[in-house]
Amino acid sequence: MYRSKDFSLMDVINVNGKRLGFINDLLVDFNIKKITGFSIATYGFLKKNLNVGIGDVVSFNSVMVITATTEESFLEFKNIKNMDVRDEKGNILGMVEDIIFDKISFKINALVVSMGFLSNFLTGKKIILIKDILIGEESLLYNGRNPNLNFCSLPHKLFMEDDLNEKDETEKNI
After folding, report:
1. Do 87 and 73 share a domain, yes or no?
2. What is the domain extent for residue 34?
3. What is the H or E stretch that residue 25 is in?
4. Cys-Cys crosslink for 27: which of 74, 131, 157, 165, Cβ 3.0 to 4.6 Å?
């Protein structure tokens, strides 16, 4: 799985080796629930933004190599980031912080929702599946179908003893 921060500020070059700029955002399509491409901030004097579709990406590791760009307008993740996530009763569950998507198909799997510093520290961030989200003008609606299923991300090191490997401990208990 990838997150938006895995691509943030990654250098972008074309197949001829010319440096075009760096990735400053993801292009998303919530209708098909996929990452459709990347927004590139150029290094040039005029600083125009270019977009590249997933189909035009040759490879990426520490640098993304592409074949073509476009200046068309698309929905960017930054337009959704920091939006409130509300439940069916109108209660605010938190703010969108990140997006989680598949490594091969670039299909969006979930959103990471932050509930504030203290709450994130104590209970972790919420992971909300994309199928339970409806996007609106000013906020996202969460219509969670199973209240017994709750995903969250907890600080791993807080719950580990020093120099203890979980895998070794699990094998001892078996």
Report:
1. no
2. 2-77
3. strand 19-29
4. 74
C-alpha–C-alpha distance, residues 56 and 65, integer Å: 9
Of 59, 77, 95, at which residue does a domain stop? 77
- Together in a domain, 55 and 105: no
Q: What is the DSSP letter of 44?
A: S
Round to whole Å and give the CA distance between 12 and 66.
7
* Mean pLDDT across 13-29: 92
Count the neighbouring beta carbons within 10 Å of the beta carbon of residue 9.
9
Both tokens of residue 73?
């307008």
At residue 125, the pLDDT reads 87
- Secondary structure element (H or E) that encloses residue 108, with its range: strand 108-114
pTM attached to this predicted model: 0.77
Tokens of 142: 């969460």
Cα separation, 69 vs 90, in Å, equals 40
CB 150 within 8 A of CB 144: no
